[in-house]
Every structure is written in C-alpha cells, then in structure tokens.
Amino acid sequence: MIEFVARFTLPTEIVYGTGTSARLGEEARKLGATKVFLVTDAGVAKSGILADAQASLDKADLPHVLYDKAPTDPDTDVLDQVAALIRANGCDLVVAAGGGSVLCTGKGSAAVASNPGPARDYLGNSKFPNAPLVSIGMPTTAGSGSEVSRHTSLTDAVTKRKEGFNGYKTAPRIAILDPLLLRSVPRSQAIASGVDAFTHALEAYVSSIATPLTDVIALEAMKAIVANLPLSVHSESLEARCQMSLASTMANIACGNAGLGLVHAINGAITYFYKNNPDFPPISYGLLHAILLPHVMEFNSVVVEDKLARLAVYLGASDIGKSRRELARECVAMVKVMLAQIGAPRRLPWEKLSPEQVEAIVSEQMTHHHQPNPRKYGADDIRRIVESSMLGWEL
After folding, report:
1. Taking the CB of residue 101, how many other CB atoms lie within 10 A of it?
2. Which of 114, 139, 188, 237 makes a 20 to 30 Å CA pair with 358?
3. Average pLDDT of 90-110?
4. How many other CB atoms are there within 10 angstroms of residue 370's CB atom?
C-alpha cells in the first residue's frame, strides 16, 4: 500500500531510434520554431556528430545560431549570458545537444531568456512568471537523463552551491535519443555518465517515495546498464550504446518521479567542499558517485533488504538457499563488480582530510543537501561514509 499521495509525470515526448537526430528540423517545425538557438560544447561541435541535425534544420528552412561554449559546470552567470544571446538573436526555440551540463545550460537558458530577472532569482521550485522558450534535448552521453528532467542542475555563482530550477515547464518538450550521437564519447566520460545513470535508477528504486511505476522503470534501467555499460566502455558496440541511451533516459524518468538519495546528497556536499578549497582537485560528478555508492548501499541495506534482494535476482543472482540478507549483500557485491569492470575509482583521490575538513563536509550535507533517502541518518553516519570514502571500498 502506498501511504502517501503519489504523482507520476513525464512532460517530455521521446523520439528514439538510430539516426533520429536527422529529424531535428522536422520536430522543431512541429513546435512552431522560426529560428533555433543550438547549444553544445566545443568537443561535440568539433566531432561532427551534429552534422545531420544541423542539415535537417537547413532542410526545414530554419535558420539557427550555434553556441558551442557550454561549460562543464554551468552556473547562474553562464545562463544569464546565454539567455542574453538567445534574446539578441531573436531565437524562439532552444536545442541542447551534449551531456548533462550542455542540456542544463540549454534548457536553463531557455527559461531565463523569456523572463525578466537574472537566473539567481529563479533558483528553486517553479518561480518563473513566464513560460520558458520551447526546448529540445539531444543527449550525446548516456548518463544524466536531463533531456527528460524537469530539474535544471547548475551552480549558484555567488554561493558556489549546486542549486537548480525545478518545474514541469522547464523540461524539454521533446527528447531526441539517437545512439549515433554517443559514438564519440571518450572512455572516461562513458564511465562517469554510466555510473550517474545507474545511481539515478538505484536511488529511485530504494527511495522512500518510490512507487510500482518507478520501480518497474528503475529495474529495467539497471538491468540494461549492468548488461551494457562494460561493453559500451570497452568497445564501440552500437547495440550497447543503444541500450545505454534508453536506459539513461529511463533512469531519469524513475528518479524524476521517485527522487534521489544519500549518494547525491553527499556528492553535493563534497563538490561544494572542493570548489571552495582549491588545493583539492575536482572529481567528476559520476566518478564521485562510484566512490560513494557501495558505502551508501551498505548503509541503506538495513531497511531495504527486500528490494536489494529482488534486484540481485533481477540482475541474475540465484536465490536458491539464500536469505534476503544474503541476497542484499550479493546485490552490493554485484554493483562493485560492475564498477570494477569499467575501471571506476574506489576512493577519494586526496591524500587526507583533516577532522575539520571532514566536519565541513558533514555540516554542508546536513544543512543544505537533502534527498528522500530510505534510511534516516545523522551527522555520525555521514562522517563514517565520508571517512570510508577516503579509504575506499573493496570487492
């Protein structure tokens, strides 16, 4: 029985299939576009993978402006700058083609461009007085799922904290999932993105506000990722990338409705810490998930044994002669094996953290970063997870 009011929504239409990026012009025309602002980054622009998409805009007689300077970690200042360019060029539809940062830069700028104030005014839930410009998302990585997300992740340029816009209207109107766009993804990015997608699905699955709808989607996403992520990292298999493309989107549909958990919450606190302590080198968002995930799974397993046991069997474990607890432990071990297979990091890359620095991370998490985690936690629990992440997990 669901003991709360559950909602499930998907504000984005999904166009999926090999070569679908060549439909961009047609889809933009259907949405009433007259001039398109195309957001991407320098790497994607130079790779040539958007050639078919851009040609389709020309074929549809849609002029477009190319912006290829989307940063790795967009902040509110960046969105203000891009929104100003959208307005100055008279564009009425934004296409974001890239990884999660590009997608957030594009759809976030589309929202700011149609509203009077700076981006910082709209951080939070549904604060835009005017509807955002229509946007289309075209992911070139299999990870964030931002192409179907109503959340726009960005950094507050003043506080340096991970914040964002939330609201159904900020989600892209259409997501075009073309596996051919994943063919130039660097190996390191494929690892980080794949772990991000898996973490979205897992945290949605064990969330305290999960529903049967989100469970089904999350389970299928995790099964596809475990089966295809190692192959997509170590080979150029188009089929593996097809499966990862769809699984990434499914994972975000699940977490967009069921929420995330403690991995994302601690990730936000650690990210804030290193951004404000330049002596500590940054860590990719997805790779930080890989470091934290086994520790958080072990912490949560006390209250989600049944779900983890079900997941272990779903991923191929035999349940003959095994208790729920044994299967839950096997599930954690299976996730560790997958992470090891793709070469994900096991520990934080810093030599040491002083007790004061650990406390700064703990305080940041407890004060500013909250998610619907299945097990209640306190500062001592966060401290143990952070300290364990310095030592690393073992197979």
Report:
1. 22
2. 188
3. 97
4. 12
Quickly state the pLDDT bin for 2 (edges 50, 70, 90): low
Going 14 to 19 to 21 to 23, the CA torsion angle's sign is negative
Cα(38)–Cα(31) distance, integer angstroms? 15
Residues ≥6 apart with Cβ < 8 Å to 54: 38, 64, 66
**pLDDT of 4 strictly over 80:** no
Sheet arrangement for strand 124-125: 124-125, 162-166, 151-155
For residue 6, pLDDT beyond 90:
no
The rounded mean pLDDT for the chain is: 95
Q: Which residues, in sequence order, are bridge partners of residue 96?
A: 39, 137
Q: 47-98, pLDDT tens digit by residue?
A: 999 999 999 999 999 999 999 999 998 999 999 999 999 999 999 999 999 9
3-state secondary structure of 285: helix
CB distance 208 to 372 below 8 Å: yes
DSSP states of 80-115 as a string? Answer: HHHHHHHHHTT--EEEEEESHHHHHHHHHHHHHHTS
d(CA 309, CA 333): 12
Percentage of the chain surpassing pLDDT 90? 91
Name all domains of the chain by residue range, CATH numbers in brackets. 13-182 (3.40.50.1970), 187-391 (1.20.1090.10)
Task: Count how many residues are written for the chain.
Answer: 395
Quote the Cα angle for 281-154-240, to 5°: 80
Q: pLDDT tens digits, residue range 225-267? A: 999 999 999 999 999 999 999 999 999 999 999 999 999 999 9
Summarize the chain as % helix, strand, coil (round to 5). 55, 10, 35
pLDDT at 371: 77
Q: For 115-131, what is the mean pLDDT?
A: 94
Report the C-alpha gap between 161 and 151 in whole angstroms: 15
Residue 79 token pair: 């969105």
DSSP per residue, 171-196: S-SEEEE-GGGGTT--HHHHHHHHHH
Q: What type of residue sits at position 220?
A: E
Q: How far apart are CA 288 and CA 245, in angstroms?
A: 21
Cα distances from 209 to residues 201, 203, 242, 250, 273, in angstroms, run 13, 10, 29, 17, 29
